[in-house]
Write a structure and sequence with these properties.
With 267 residues, the chain is α+β, with helices and mostly antiparallel strands. Helices cover 46% and strands 24% of the residues. The strands form four sheets. It has a four-stranded antiparallel sheet, with helices on one face. Helix 1 packs antiparallel against helix 2, helix 2 runs antiparallel to helix 3 and helix 3 packs antiparallel against helix 4. The longest helix is centred in the middle third of the chain and has 34 residues.
Length: 267
Amino acid sequence: MKTPIKVRLLTWITTAIMVLLVIGMVSTLFASLWFAPRMVPDRDSMSGMASYNTSLSILGNTYTYLLERDSPNGSATEGFYLLNGDDLFRFMPSDSVRYRSNAIDMENSHSSSFAFGLARKQSLNYDGQMTVPILIGHTGIPLDRTSFFRHIQTESFYRILMLIYLFVMVWYLRKFVKKLQNADFFTDENVRNLKVVAFLLILAPFLEFLWSRITAIDYTAPVQTNLLSSGGTDFMFEALFFGLILWVVAWCFGYGVSMQKEQELTI
C-alpha cells in the first residue's frame, strides 16, 4: 500500500523538528562552553579601544559585558549586566535617559504602499535634531563576575534539558506518525506512543514551574517601583490542557484497540 502524502509530510516535519532540536543543543553547548568564557577579553588586547561590549542571549535573557576606558589616565571600568526580556519598566521623563535623534520633517516626507500593501516605500526628510527620552524599556541588572557566568551556565543547562525533553516528545510522536504507514495501525504500541506524548505534555508545566522556583532570580528588585509589566514564571496551562486532551484521545484509541481484539477473538 502506497503511503499517503500527508503521512510522509508529517514524518518529514517531525524529522526536521528533531534535527532543529539537535542543532539547538549543539549551539547552546557551544555558546556556554566556548563563547561565554571569551566574552571578557584580555585587557592587553583592548589597550587601543575606548569601549567594548559583547552580549549573549539565552531563553529571552541577554547577558552583556561592558568595558569603558578613561583615556586621560588609562583606567578601565567593566560591568556585567543581565537584561530580562520579559520585564518592561516605566521611566519618568525627568529620570529617563535621553538621546539625540534626527527630527523628521513631516511636511516634506511621504510614504506609499504597493503590491496590495505588502511593500512600502518611504521618503523621509530630516530637519535638525531633537532630544528623545526613553520612557519604557528593559533595564540592565548589575551582577558580579561570578554570578554573571553562573547564571549563563544555569540557563544553558536548563535550555539543553528542555531541548532533550522536546526531542523525546517529538521522537514518540514521530513513532506514532510512522505507524500510519502500516496496516496494523491500531496496536498497543501506538497507544503507548500517544500516551507518552500526552504524559510529557502534562508533566512539562510542573517541571518548568519547579525549576523556576529552584533557580528563581529576582530581576526586578533594583527597580521594582518602575515595573510596568512582567512575564514572570507563569504556569503553562496551555501545555497541561493539550496534554489532557491528548490523554483522552489516547484512552479512546486504546479502547478502540481493545474492542478490535475482542472482535477478532469472537470471529
